Amino acid sequence: MKAIQLHYPPEWAHCYGCGYLNPMGLHLQTYWNRERKESRTAFTPSPHHTAIPGFVYGGLLASLVDCHATATAAAAKADAEGLDLEKTPLRFVTASLKVDYLKPTPLGPELVLVGRAREVKGRKVVVEAEVYAGEALTVRGEAVLVQITEGFGG
Ligand SMILES: CCCCCCCCCCCC(=O)SCCNC(=O)CCNC(=O)[C@H](O)C(C)(C)COP(=O)(O)OP(=O)(O)OC[C@H]1O[C@@H](n2cnc3c(N)ncnc32)[C@H](O)[C@@H]1OP(=O)(O)O
């Protein structure tokens, strides 16, 4: 299965969190499960992602939620509308991002993110995401993603 981010054309692939063309980026790769209607990704923070010794920096966790949510939005919209991302790539930007840090996230183990779309409406998708360190749910996020149109940022 191909990661959602790898469907992005090059001009959409420079993002620090998930762009495959960003040499300094996190290169997050998100996968969509059509049966479960949920997305997954995994990321193992490095020692330089420290907040308090032994625990992951919250800004990094927000970045993971952010980029996992943008990809989840693309997959959920494609799923809802019967689109093939291979033929019709979709790209979303973050309009709003809320992150709740439920407990400290240990630095060392692989983190797993799970995402679900709560709402798919027009250009807007609302995504809920969870970050797990092993069995422990440490972060819960919610993002509003808006599909970009031609002339974005202009
Ligand atoms: C070359 C390109 C490369 C593009 C490469 C893309 C890289 C992606 C990177 C990954 C993620 C990021 O970090 S992105 C970087 C951080 N984000 C940004 O810089 C985005 C800056 N903001 C914007 O450009 C704009 O505000 C947009 C695009 C988000 C929305 O503006 P718009 O296009 O005019 O949309 P608009 O009609 O107002 O809103 C559409 C729907 O979304 C809702 N909505 C809009 N903003 C919000 C909000 N803050 N909170 C809640 N909901 C909101 C509206 O109520 C509406 O819902 P309803 O009434 O229909 O229900």
From TrEMBL:
Keywords: Apoptosis, Cell membrane, Cell projection, Cytoplasm, Fatty acid metabolism, Hydrolase, Lipid metabolism, Membrane, Transit peptide. It is found in: Cell projection, Ruffle membrane; Cytoplasm; Membrane. CDD domains: PaaI_thioesterase. One of its GO terms (biological process) is fatty acid metabolic process. Its EC number is 3.1.2.2. It catalyses: decanoyl-CoA + H2O = decanoate + CoA + H(+); (5Z,8Z,11Z,14Z)-eicosatetraenoyl-CoA + H2O = (5Z,8Z,11Z,14Z)-eicosatetraenoate + CoA + H(+); (9Z)-octadecenoyl-CoA + H2O = (9Z)-octadecenoate + CoA + H(+); tetradecanoyl-CoA + H2O = tetradecanoate + CoA + H(+). One of its GO terms (molecular function) is hydrolase activity. The keyword Transcription does not apply. InterPro entries: HotDog_dom_sf (IPR029069), THEM4/THEM5_acyl-CoA_thioest (IPR052365), Thioestr_dom (IPR006683). It comes from the Bacteria. It is a peripheral membrane protein. GO terms for cellular component: cytoplasm; membrane. Residues 54-135 form the Thioesterase domain. Belongs to the THEM4/THEM5 thioesterase family. PANTHER family: ACYL-COENZYME A THIOESTERASE THEM4 (PTHR12418:SF19). This is Acyl-coenzyme A thioesterase THEM4. It comes from Thermus thermamylovorans. The lineage of its organism: Bacteria, Thermotogati, Deinococcota, Deinococci, Thermales.
